[in-house]
Amino acid sequence: MAQVILIEDNKTLNDLISVNLTTYLGVDLIQRKNAQDALSLLAILPNIDLIITAEKVDSEKTGEVLSQYIDSNKLDTGLIVLGSSAVAQNDFTINIPNGKDWEEVVHASAKILGINENVLAKKAVPDYIAVPVRYFLNLDYVNCDVFIRIKKSPTEYQFVKRIHNGDTFSKESIKRYMDQGLENFHIDKDAYKNFTIFLSNRLVEKIDSPNMDETKKIQIMGESYDVAVREIAKLGFNSETIQLTEAIIHNMVKNFEKSPEMSNLLHKVINSNTGLLYQRCHMTSVVASEMIKNLKFEDPKAYEKIAYASFFHDIMLADREELTKINSFDELEKANLSEQDWDMVFNHAMEAAVLLRKHPEAPTGSDEIIKHHHGATNGKGFSNNIEKLPDLSKIFIIAHHFVLELVRFKETGGDPKPVTEELYKRYPSPDVAIIIKALEKTLKKKK
Ligand SMILES: [Fe+2]
Ligand SMILES: [Fe+2]
Q1: N or C terminus: fewer CB in 10 A for the chain?
Q2: Using only C-alpha atoms, what is the Rg of the chain?
Q3: CA 22 to centroid of ligand 2, rounded, Å
Q4: What spacing in Å lies between the alpha carbon of 406 and ligand 1's midpoint?
Q5: 105 and 74: one domain?
Q6: 395 and 310, same structural domain?
Q7: pTM of the entire structure?
Q8: 184-226 pLDDT per residue, tens
């Protein structure tokens, strides 16, 4: 069986490439974090057939390092570099400029590994679809058979049924699979659609169940947020993802309205066992809503617009959490990104706004807040000249900035920064000062 090393920190792309290479090409896939990590493996396993890598990992020029190593050690290893538009300097490298084009990656891999493309065409749809094991933590039974995948021979996998259609199971049994390192269950492709409907419905039911305490509810909202964002990034909107986002957003608004104290709610969110992106989304929504309340803003839909904007504003970066922390042009330049990542960050506000317009339930105006969330009128890049933006956009920018600093402070510790002073300096216009004052007021109130 061909042995392939994959270095790609974009989770969705990594999943797509892994699933397709193992399903279509039957390769033995080995994950590595960066070139240094891969070199230590090559030292003991020099017969690797192919390495697929992102052009850069952080500041390491991964593609270049590996190319030089293969060259100077005269290895018989092919190299595919994702996101590089340079012309390959040797006969073992293929550069794929659009690193997101996973189909191209599979084709190029087939070529390097000498696998007939006709075989590929026949297998165009995998029979089983991988589903993260953690999704099952929110279920107690399933509406389809669930399999685990076992390697049978160098090129074949066997799918062994572990949960039968209709069976009930405990959280503990799912946790045991996770403890053993199992990442994915597999579901028959014909059953997959019904499964996602079933999962979404169960999550919606849980979110909406009236007697759940707030901590538990925040937990389930966080998990649902992860499912929704992943499915939307993969398939766009469909009735299930729409229903699921509706339930989460509706609950964010409801939770806020019945919470007497903002600090209490923020505290629960930031200390919950949920993903960071969800926490920031929820907290931005809470802080911005509290500011709206203080400003006595007359727009009955304001909370809802803010909740939608919070949910979707960074969806284009959802699987690259570190990129969502970039909040100025200066930080973007200092982040040392590949051209493709740089573009992705530069355009993410505009692209998320375009995506949200496809959501039939999203209130008009929430797309505009998303487009403006880094200050630029056209949603490209960053700007501090926000005084001409609509008030809701300004409120969102200030709340967003505050939450980013709050999370940064929680992560890195140290002395708390005087965030509002920074904000007055960064946005010196009197129009914005009114908004920053509203933030100050909400912060003082909690003491
Ligand atoms: Fe953000
Ligand atoms: Fe953003």
Answers
A1: C
A2: 24
A3: 34
A4: 13
A5: yes
A6: yes
A7: 0.67
A8: 999 988 888 788 888 888 888 888 888 888 888 898 899 899 8
